[in-house]
Amino acid sequence: MQNLNKNKKYFLILTLIFCLTAFCSRDLLFVQAAYEGYTVDDLNQEIAERQKEIQAIEKQREEYQKKVKAEQQKALSLRSQISILENQISDRQLKIQQLRIEIEEANLQIQNITLQIEKKEQEITDHQQKIAELIRFIYQKSQKNPLEILLLNQSLADFFNQLKYTEDIQRELQKTLSKMKIIQQGLQVQKSELENKKQELSKLKEENEDEKSALNGQQNYQQVLLTETQSSEKKFQSMLAELQRERQAAESNIANIESAIRDKLSRQESWQGDKDVFLDWPIPLKKITCYFHDTDYPFRKWIGEHSGVDLRASQGTAIHAPASGYIARAKDAGMGYSYIMVVHNDQISTVYGHVSKIFVTEDTYVTKGQIIGLTGGMPGTPGAGSMSTGPHLHFEVRLNGIPVNPLDYLP
């Protein structure tokens, strides 16, 4: 009976070990090797090379950014605007090159981690085989009782040596089990790191596409600027004046309508609005390209402080209502500056500028998350307005009709 219990015990241990090993190996996703035959050291060297390239590009980008800031300190003229654009375009081209290298680096790191995971998998297999051998040995010895072992040995010393050897084997088994546990823990960490790197790679690829879209917008803006001004400073200043009139008209329109709408809604018993408004982002946040009252806003001297935040978005991105509300204004200006205004309660309203399409009508209600329009901003496209520099959404939050920092009201 005692031997039977021992047999069950060893069988259970062996089963457990195989199950643990199988579990650790299950669902491991390997990245197809992009560098056939490369070792971990080879990959580390490649990663180091990519990092050097990235550092060199960052230094080049700093120079272009300094030139942009220097030009922005000057009076806005056609010459300075073209210079700013040229430096911004060069900077963005370098950024795209940098992202390409960062994508290569991320792929190398994924491959590096994958090789290390494979190595640990092999170590676990080796330890599994060793454990199986040790268990088989202990199992074989457990089939003999101490008297039988004593009779099979030629002397009492051999008998004790045999017992000690069995104890040593058991200690070796425990030691091997501990090592395998440590390897398994390291494997789990590296699998987690692998997934993080895959997510990082996905974000880099998405950012790269966004940068290409932004570069396309800047190049289009440069072309529109050169075509419409025909290198004439007078025409450029005329465009700036048109931009000023356009934005002042929009601001006046928004302010007057908001006041009238609030007065109208206050007399409607059916309208209460949400007492507390909790806003969501109207589009997925990728990057804020211009902040509230941003000192780098290029048209600050002509149309005043930047009254919202500019959110980078590909042309035609769906705009979702960040909270339920009432459509106070849905201005389709054709090729001019198109915008939507939503009143959420007796204090909070939001405005969305450079919209390329409007899906709502004035004097209607929308619910949180409802699509109200599409983003625009690409120069020379519907809704972009004068001198838009690329695809984005201009987003404002207003408190009692006064623009406030949207970041104070967003998660």
Which features would summarize this protein structure in a list?
11 strands; elongated; 411 residues; eight-stranded antiparallel beta sheet; disordered N terminus; single chain; three-stranded antiparallel beta sheet; alpha+beta; 7 helices
Topology record:
Elements: H1 2-25, H2 40-72, H3 78-142, H4 146-152, H5 156-229, H6 233-266, E1 288-290, H7 300-303, E2 309-312, E3 318-320, E4 325-331, E5 339-343, E6 348-353, E7 355-358, E8 365-366, E9 371-375, E10 392-399, E11 402-404
Antiparallel strand pairs: 1-2, 2-10, 3-9, 4-5, 4-8, 5-6, 6-10, 7-9, 10-11
Helix pairs in contact: 1-3, 2-3, 3-5
Quick structural overview:
The chain is an alpha+beta fold and 411 residues long. The protein is built from 7 helices and 11 strands.
